[in-house]
Amino acid sequence: MRGGIDLGGTKIQAVVVDDAGRVEGEQRLPTPTVGGPQDVAEAMAGALRAAARAAGLDSAELEGVGVGSPGIVDSRRGIVTSARNLPNWEGSVPLGDALADALATRVRIENDVTVATDAEFNLGAGRPYRSILGVFWGTGVGGGIILKGKRWLGRGGAGEIGHMVVRIGGARCPCGRRGCVEAYAGRKALEERARRRVEKGEKTELFKIMEKRGRDRLTSGVWGRALEHDDKLAHKLLDQAVEALGAGVASALNVLDVDAVIIGGGLGLRLGEPYARRIEEAIMPHLFASDDPPPVHLAELGDLGGAIGASLLIRPGRAARAQTPVAG
Amino acid sequence: MRGGIDLGGTKIQAVVVDDAGRVEGEQRLPTPTVGGPQDVAEAMAGALRAAARAAGLDSAELEGVGVGSPGIVDSRRGIVTSARNLPNWEGSVPLGDALADALATRVRIENDVTVATDAEFNLGAGRPYRSILGVFWGTGVGGGIILKGKRWLGRGGAGEIGHMVVRIGGARCPCGRRGCVEAYAGRKALEERARRRVEKGEKTELFKIMEKRGRDRLTSGVWGRALEHDDKLAHKLLDQAVEALGAGVASALNVLDVDAVIIGGGLGLRLGEPYARRIEEAIMPHLFASDDPPPVHLAELGDLGGAIGASLLIRPGRAARAQTPVAG
Fold first, then answer.
1. Is the CA virtual torsion B192, B193, B194, B200 positive or negative?
2. Are B77 and B94 in contact (CB under 8 A)?
3. Does B111 touch chain A if contact means CB atoms closer than 8 Å?
4. Residue B57 sits in which domain range?
5. Which of B175, B152, B171 is nearest to B252 (CA)?
6. Could you tell me the pTM of the whole model?
7. pLDDT tens digits for B195-239?
8. Chain B interface includes A241 (CB < 8 A)
9. Which residue in B307, B315, B308 sits closest to B63, CA to CA?
10. Which whole number is the average pLDDT over B248-260?
């Protein structure tokens, strides 16, 4: 049995899985919004211990625990840097050592998008394919690439499809640049766009739904509910998001020409199949190989995908399609 | 000794090279603009025979002849389809068989961009690197990708960086889509843009230079000369081309994160080092890994690169870094 933790800006999801990738125990906790890395590490350890208990184990009995983390991950040393969505995460944090101490087992950390892409490739919607592009549509827009069965990481920074330029001189992105996909499609950018529209006098239910749900930001759930209420601004902003995602994913496909696209991430999963179809349609006008468009699938592992993917970082006993190798 | 032919819309370049890639003979002829595939094949055979003669050989004495061709290339069967810049090239043309008969040696055909990328990787500016993006800025904008020493072709259509979207709803591209890099940067699109500006009353030397040189289109040489004359419209349109190339190449780098970019193609080579530096600068505002930008080099093999690359399609005796393998 192996553990997996998906560390997100909003939630910590922990799972314990068997060698076939079946979930035997799980626990979800909110990510601490105050404190610092130590508090985050403690919450992560707590979630994993609870998941292990649900599987009838102590964490020390696990073969190990894999972690998918935002920020820049030094996998070899277990260090996470610049995780801008986590509280007071300044400089380099030795998260691997902290967790290994707390859980009394070995810990391996990788980038969250890499881990989620591996999970869909090995156990989810990517299984039929050899080369995929994973598109994680959430707070930001991340991309994971697997080419002929191997992760493609480039010099370490590949897959940034959220920062492909779809409109030169266009909207300001949370990254500081202009006209990126994420500037139109990321949850964070969408919230900023919605706030500016409201300041200019546009009407929307978005912030009322947020307050009613006791949230302090426009979560994926808030966007989903606003669509159900047929909120005009939510529709308009998400239409622009789909347009930007379509152009960006098409551009990525024009370069990579992979077998399939898998859509995941908080917003992607919440908006689900109808939006996966809309993104597929938005790709078409820009796709060079339009005679033979690669299929677009929704991520199959859903909310647990990141944590299950993280568990794959621990080399399993004899899983069929084990740890995804890195190209080269 | 091996032969190589670069088949372009404007010229046919033939070379004969030794196993180390040294050019022992070469010949350049204009591509027939009337007639059909048979005339093109005859001109190609003529150019190659002249190059062989210059090397003191008969074409039948060559180990074989490689061809870089535009259009869709079925390499296994030697068939070229949809080569839209060649005269009356309708349907599928068995170019390989026609040339093998005419030259009395074996012939292997590949896509021209693939071949030129291989050449720069093996013998040119790409030698120090394992993963490169080749950008061929000419009539269109093509891209060739080598990842960890292997060609990346995807499902057969990878590398179309000319059709990455840099402005949603932007300028019409010769491919029929909108806002592609090529719509701003390709020589064909640039000429259309220049003609429209002239129709609207803008002044330019471009068409006068074209006529003085006895050309019927704005060749790379015409653009280069217009810049030397400080032609305002030429500067303006090429500024927009550089902006689009910068955004497109940056987007490709954000996805691929390769070690280096090599700029070639008719316009790229004619405008040379100053424009390679301008493209490098235009990449920066959009590059996610802006702390560590990959170097941008001008193609080293120059005008002969395509033909030398084509010669590499014939497996050499014992060249150091022989035929570039395909990923997978």
1. positive
2. yes
3. no
4. 2-116+304-311
5. B152
6. 0.92
7. 999 999 999 999 999 999 999 999 999 999 999 999 999 999 999
8. no
9. B315
10. 98
Does the pLDDT at position A321 exceed 50?
A: no
Work out the average pLDDT over B159-178. 97
Tens digits of per-residue pLDDT, A72-120? 899 999 999 988 778 888 889 999 999 999 999 999 999 999 999 999 9
Mean pLDDT of chain B: 94
Query: Does A183 share its domain with A276?
Result: yes
- A145 and A292 in a single domain? The answer is yes
Tell if the CB–CB gap between A165 and B243 is shorter than 8 Å. Answer: no
- Cβ count near B57 (within 10 Å): 17
Chain B residues with CB-CB distance to A255 below 8 A: 143, 145, 158-161, 164, 252, 255-256
DSSP classification of residue A165: B
Q: Which two tokens stand for residue B255?
A: 């996805």
CATH of the domain at A197: 3.30.420.40
Whether A320 shows a pLDDT value over 60: the answer reads no
- Verify that B247 and B99 share a domain, yes or no: no
In a domain, B195, yes or no: yes
Confidence check: pLDDT of B318 > 90: no
Contacts of A142 in chain B (CB under 8 A): none
Check residue B152 and report its DSSP letter: -
Integer CA distances (angstroms), B321 to B14, B119, B317, B318, in order: 22, 10, 11, 9
User: Distance between CA B87 and CA B104 in Å, rounded?
Assistant: 25
pLDDT at A165 over 50: yes
Go through B266-279 and write b for each residue having 16 or more CB atoms within 10 A of its CB, e for each that does not.
Answer: bbbbbbeeebbebb
Query: Hey, what's the torsion of the CAs at B92, B183, B132, B1, to 10 degrees?
Result: 40
Contact list in A for residue B159 (CB cut-off 8 A) is 255, 257
pLDDT at A64: 97
B164 at A interface, C-beta within 8 A: yes
A69 contacts chain B (CB < 8 A): no
Which pLDDT score, from 0 to 100, does residue A318 have? 40
Residue B254, number of CB atoms within 10 A of its CB: 30
